[in-house]
Amino acid sequence: MDWIGSLSYIAYTTGAIICALAAIWIARKGDATRGDRIPAVLAVALTANWCFAAASFEPGRAIVELTEIARNLAWLFMLFRLFGNDGRDETLRLVRPAVFSLAFVEVLQFVLLVIARRYAVTTDLAELTYETAALFRVMVAVGALVLLHNLYAGAATSSRQILRWSAASLAGMWAFDLNYFTIGYITGAYPPELAALRGIAAAVFAIPFAIGFNRHSSHLAFRPSRAVTFRFLSLLVIGGYFALMLALARSLDMLTGDLTRMTQVGLIIAAGALALIWLPSDRLRGWLRVTAIKHLFKHRYDYRTEWIRFTETIGTTGFDNISLQERAVKALADITDSPSGILLVADEEGALELAANWRWTGIEVPSQAAPTGLAGVLERSELIIDFDELRAGIDRDGEQALVPGWMREDPRAWAAVPLLHFDRLVGLVLLSRPVIERKLDWEDFDLLGVVGRQLASYLAEQASQTALLEAGRFDEFNRRMAFVMHDIKNLSSQMALLLRNAEKHADKLEFRKDMLVTLRNSVDKLNTLLARLGRYGAPENFAAREFNLAESTRQVAERLSTVHPVALLHSEEVIVEGNPEALDQALVHLIQNAIEASDPSSPVMLEVVRDGISGKIHIIDNGCGMSQQFLRKGLFKPFVSSKSGGFGIGAFEARELIRSMGGRIDVESREGLGTRFTVSLQLQSANSVLRRGSPGIENEVA
């Protein structure tokens, strides 16, 4: 037990030093207007004296007991003076008998000390004296705690601000004494470990007590950070867990023989497995966080911490190098502890489509994720959709009829946050349900709305930067075209020179031979240059005429089948209105892409069908396929090419050509399975009906 003696010496010495410093600080820096400043200095000084005596002498010495009696009487007097801080002189008259009674019980300790030294000659008398002394100390601690509770509960609001630090310190000191002497009374001996820690406890309680005498103590408050609170609760749970395991292990002492050892080993294995599985779990951490926020904090969120985390998430890509869209989803999901989320953005027609998926596995999002009407409702109302309310039939702004079924039916869908920039919907973030379920409240709506607007500005800025980048690439394209024009000018100059010389030397045979060679070379160069230009330019104005979609498709298929198998599986006679040369050029681009994505032996399949108002060409391959991210961000982006020196505008040009005829291109693709391009053009008959029904359209076409 030598280590206990060393611990006791260190603890009481530390307590003596800190209590002495606290007494000096209260005497010199304490609020001089408080009438209890002198009693406070006396009480803390006598506590330092008791710690000094306990460190200098062995436990149980008379001088140690006498200094403890003096310390307790000083603290009772301090408690009595605290009742006068509220100006309640009448209260002092009512409290005085109770305080004097406690002081009298404490004075009886001196009598018991004399009895224990001189008259407790037998073991029974010594035990009786010890039990009486412990019982008296328990009575004093209980009485002091009752008075302290009445003091704080009955104090005015302004007085509570002054009393809270002093009351908290005294409550901690007497609660420690109550447990210490209760254990001593029950067990018949004071635990040496707790006895050694009494000095540290005195030092710990002296510090906040001294702080309470600061002139500005009414404005001081103990506000631990949320991180510290969560860690403290985690340690508390872990400590309780190990205390339970210890209690179970101690209870096994009742068993005997091999059964004891076998049970202990089994308990150790079970405890270790439970600790590894349960303690690190996300569910436990989530429960601790929700419990702490609900009961310990006024607000759900620590806004400073949330904003710092939000800024770091948006501004740092990290090792996984995720896109801004995915970081935007993560930033919102981190606020609500959602494990996953997706981002929907508006397409060119105003409907919502998938733009980013952050850790949401197994979700099937259709190509048109949400209708245009829902985007309009969210723009007008700035509504954050609570899916639990939605499923319960609550309709706030008409969103019930517009939320698609795939959102409503997925139980993981918890909230949808609109991203608004200048009252325009930039995107919609769908958040999954947190591990620890809870209901969305006003703090969630306020914070998610503010963060949603900030994210919308980031996404809008990125879109603007992308548009500027594309404009710069078009400028680069125009500069390259200037070189092409320079070549044309050179050829034109050569032809003009040839013409002038022909006027002079046309009758010479050798000149005519050279002229034919020069003309042939110039024509070849011009044809090559025009063919190259034809691949990158779309006619701005063309004469629309009727043509057979199936026949045009068949001609392209036959021409390209010489380099790769191209099969026209199904063909219907479909008369459309447009430019067959533009269609031919678009189909060449799309079929060539399919050929390059397929194996040499895997054919590209074509189908020509009609659906009543439009004709459709399906271009199907069984190639490597494309990811959803590439379909959204790379397929129809100009100047993105994997070929050295290529402009990379083939798919972009094909889409623009089809759009110039009033049609559209749709794409479906799965990685590892293949791709389907669908080219849609309106039937000639449908155009005729539209013209007859709308004179304005007819005039415009004319």
UniProtKB/TrEMBL annotation:
EC class: transferase
Catalytic activity: ATP + protein L-histidine = ADP + protein N-phospho-L-histidine
Protein encoded by which gene: prsK
A Pfam family recorded for this sequence: GAF
PROSITE patterns: HIS_KIN
Keywords for the protein's UniProt record, in alphabetical order: Kinase, Membrane, Phosphoprotein, Transferase, Transmembrane, Transmembrane helix, Two-component regulatory system
The protein's Enzyme Commission number: 2.7.13.3
Domain Histidine kinase: start-end pairs: 483-685
Cited CDD domains: HATPase (cd00075)
GO molecular function, one term: protein histidine kinase activity
InterPro entries: 2C_sensor_his_kinase, GAF, GAF-like_dom_sf, HATPase_C_sf, HATPase_dom, His_kinase_dom, Sig_transdc_His_kin-like_C, XrtA/PrsK
Organism of origin: Qipengyuania mesophila
Entry keyword annotation includes Transmembrane: yes
Transmembrane segments: 6-26, 38-57, 94-115, 135-153, 165-183, 195-216, 228-249, 261-279
Protein name per its UniProtKB record: histidine kinase
